[in-house]
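Batch job 17 of 40 flagged for manual review because the log was empty.
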Amino acid sequence: MTKAELIKILEIGSETGLTFFEQAIKDGYNFENAKIIAAFVLHNLGFKKLFIESFLKNLKTNNN
């Protein structure tokens, strides 16, 4: 896998996680539960713990 392919996969993961997070908020879930939903989706798509933790940290940073 090339560096460009890896970057594209990480971008897709971030976009997917954010989409599920935003939809959970729209569906009435609070911030913490929406994060759990996004993490669960990313985990089921095969993303590793380090990526998911980084994604969640960035959500917190961007929403505070």
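Reviewer: the log was empty due to a logging misconfiguration, but the result itself is present. The two ends are 35 Å apart (CA to CA). Unflagging and moving on to job 18.
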